Amino acid sequence: MHLRNWQQKIIDAFPLIIKQNRRFILKAPTGAGKTVLASEIIARFYKCKKVVVLCHRLVLLEQLEQALGKKHLVRKLTVSDTGLAFEGYDVLLSTNMRAKDVLADAILKADLIIIDEAHRVSPNGPGYKWFLDDFENRGKMSAQLMGLTASPERRTGDQRDQLNLAFDAIIDCANIDDLISEGVLVQPVYRPHFVHDLNLDSIDISSGDFPVASLAPAIIRSSMIDYALWSYHEERPHLSPKPVSAWFCAGISAAEATLQAIQNSGIKAAIVTAGTPLKERMRLLAAHGNGDIEAMVSVGVLAEGWDNPNCNIIVHLRPTLSKVLWGQSVGRGLRSAPGKEKCVVIDVSSNWSTFGPVEKLEWSLWSHRRSYMQFMNRFNWIGQQQDDEDSSETYLLCKNEMANGMRCSHIYLKNAFENETCPVCGTYAAIDIYKEQKLDRSLNENKLHTLFFERVPKVFGEMNLSVWSSLDKTAWKSATAKEQVFLSFCMAFALVSADKTQSESDYWDATLATEAHIRAYLVENNFQIVKHEGFDLADIADGMLAGTVIRSLQAHYGISVCGTAFINHTVSECDRKYHKAIKIAERLAMIGCSKQDNLPYFNASRHLASL
User: What would you measure as the largest C-alpha separation in the chain, in angstroms?
Assistant: First the structure.
């Protein structure tokens, strides 16, 4: 089998990977060829051995059976199966909820367990907890647990349910830009529009995302579908060999309204949802695959495990606070195919301006409660680009009113087009998003970074350290809630490792070890941090300036703690410490700290009992 460059690199490195790791994720973009890689790993390293492959959807089982059945003796587990595992076959395919007795037997015998779409793994949930516990406690010590995903991140604030608790390491296999240059993927070309009359402000997001029951009616009332269809009809004539599109919607009612609008415009379209029977779904997707159906409208079924390389337009009508959903869905259009030059991404949901292009997404193995709140600002990513220290970019929003009565509302980069005219409507009637939306606020990590590295060495060099060195308990004892967070940041900066980390897993191991150290100090000294509703970087900046929020005692003591690190470390090392310290302070603010702490990396009761 001819392997792609990134696949061959992983095959070559695999003996070392399994020597160093027992539970790991192979991370590669959607369309990179993770299933092919898994098949090759089984053939080369687990021939005649026992392998379990898990996924969470029936349609994925069908695809995996077809892919793996070409080279291996495969059995797809059914709900009614009984008896012993691996009788007459070597590869067992299943969801994690099928025939648990057979699956439990397979876990004990397996030499390799593969979990597809591994970002779905819930270490503390009923679907996977028993499985992970069995593997850890009863599985072969020589066996490996290997996850496959393009987006190793879970949106949960439950500290007992983080992805890093299921896997020890993330192996970063390939990135989108490299795969585009190799011709494995095509270039995404984004066409984002801001829909002015879509009001999301009143929707309750306490669940961590916009609930479909509230989102779908808001979409139908707005002009979102009109914007999507207008953009689509402008883009489809310029695609080769012919337009083939996937439309991602929120809720069945919004999807049906979208389908009706597409069909009324003369385009052959169909709809698939989680309720579409499997055989009917496969028939429709096959018709879409061969071009008989141009537009496929979906609700929650195409973002994972669906492959149609001919798809060259993605239309996103599903506002979300989930970076995973955005990345997975856009990735479905990036696979290369004969004659396919690009994939146009029409986004009328403000996901592009919120998260950024999928090729620039960054992932995190740990999150805290309300970590999704930053994405409530639908210009979150654009604001970050404006404030980037190395490469500041300004984006414009076209407000031109067109003949059809709609505003253009296209978002585009300033200075990228002649006379700064809009590339969609050809006029200049734009506003600076950053200024108009008042994104220039002190809650900005880039600005705090500059202030921190300028201010701390200067102030520290002028301090009488003999005055401040013994004031730790005094500063903590009298600290307000915001001052506690400031002191947590300073303490974290002083203590956290300055070493380079080779993986996301290593980064979080170092970060959480320091967080646990700070928690130990706090509970030992009866200091409690209450849960905050938000984390404001402006409070850290205020401490650097000994301003109005952080008082002089806490500000100067904190700077004295930070300053020592500048003496003993290089600027690069301090930079690594700084970024980890911000994460630690944010987590302590959002999770809180008390003698009731029962976290995977710190149990307050056990710690106090050990003293």
Answer: 80
